[in-house]
């Protein structure tokens, strides 16, 4: 689990432009490098902010515990829900691009990473019958002496805990993610991210809420090409 908000003494490094580095979490490398022996999170093998050995704990289903965080406090996640949870974990731990969205105050955290609406809706659907006791998975736990997480509240199905995919994406991990208005300039933690990342990183005006329509258009065009190519190769990404 992304355990960032807990780092109370997070040094506020005056943004020394570490966009090419990694986040500063307890498992992160200083800089991304290839990890050919990844067990999971292979989307990031070519350039990874996690060591291959980190992914061992994600390699066996059901995943019980990642670092100090138990994933099964309200029972085992279903396979499909677990897969989405893994994709989020992999992005946070391993993506060489996560630091582009580094949290201004917590250097081990991300802020407002744009997720695709369809990704959030699919994720919600996959998890709706699974249960959780935390609305905000960063904050809503009782931590014991060894830093392990315990439920503070009762377990409830996701479909009761979160109103919909948007609510889940934008609140489950605190400020980490937002749902994008674009269907292209957004991440879904699969190979299509390569297209989105190219256009998201080329964005010059950082905080412009509405991306230029030409960037959107260019992204859509490239995504179509990418999808056609993938179909030819006969291997979908989902
Ligand atoms: C994982 O591998 C890295 C580099 O090979 C090493 O520094 C680290 O101690 C390893 N971690 C564990 C938990 O084995
Ligand atoms: C999702 O839930 C939020 C919070 O309850 C609500 O404001 C929003 O309108 C909902 N969105 C959709 C598409 O139903």
TrEMBL record:
InterPro entries: Folate_rcpt, Folate_rcpt-like
GO molecular function: riboflavin binding; riboflavin transmembrane transporter activity; signaling receptor activity
Keyword Signal belongs to the record: yes
Domain (Folate receptor-like): residue spans on this chain: 22-188
Listed GO CC annotations: external side of plasma membrane
Region forming the signal peptide: 1-17
Domain of life: Eukaryota
Keyword Disulfide bond appears in the UniProt entry: yes
Keyword vocabulary terms for this entry: Disulfide bond, Signal
Family classification: Belongs to the folate receptor family.
Protein name: Riboflavin-binding protein
Organism (species): Coturnix japonica
């Amino acid at each position: 689990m992304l355990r960032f908000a807990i780092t109370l003494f997070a040094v506020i490094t005056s943004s020394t432009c570490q966009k090419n580095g990694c986040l500063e979490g307890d498992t992160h490398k200083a800089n991304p490098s290839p990890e050919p022996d990844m067990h999971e999170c292979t989307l990031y093998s070519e350039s990874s902010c996690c060591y291959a050995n980190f992914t061992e704990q994600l390699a066996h289903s059901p995943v019980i515990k990642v670092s100090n965080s138990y994933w099964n406090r309200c029972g085992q996640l279903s396979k499909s829900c677990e897969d989405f949870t893994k994709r989020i974990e992999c992005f946070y731990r391993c993506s060489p691009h996560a630091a582009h969205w580094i949290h201004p105050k917590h250097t081990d955290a991300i802020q407002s990473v744009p997720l695709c609406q369809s990704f959030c809706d699919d994720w919600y659907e996959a998890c709706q019958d699974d249960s959780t006791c935390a609305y905000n998975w960063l904050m809503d736990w009782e931590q014991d002496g060894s830093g392990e997480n315990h439920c503070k509240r009762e377990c409830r199905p996701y479909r009761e805990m979160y109103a919909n995919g948007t609510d889940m994406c934008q609140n489950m991990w605190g400020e980490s993610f937002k749902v994008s208005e674009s269907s292209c300039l957004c991440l879904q933690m699969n190979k299509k991210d390569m297209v989105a990342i190219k256009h998201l990183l080329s964005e010059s005006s950082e905080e412009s809420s509405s991306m230029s329509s030409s960037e959107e258009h260019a992204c859509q065009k490239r995504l179509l090409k990418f999808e056609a190519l993938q179909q030819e190769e006969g291997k979908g990404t989902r």
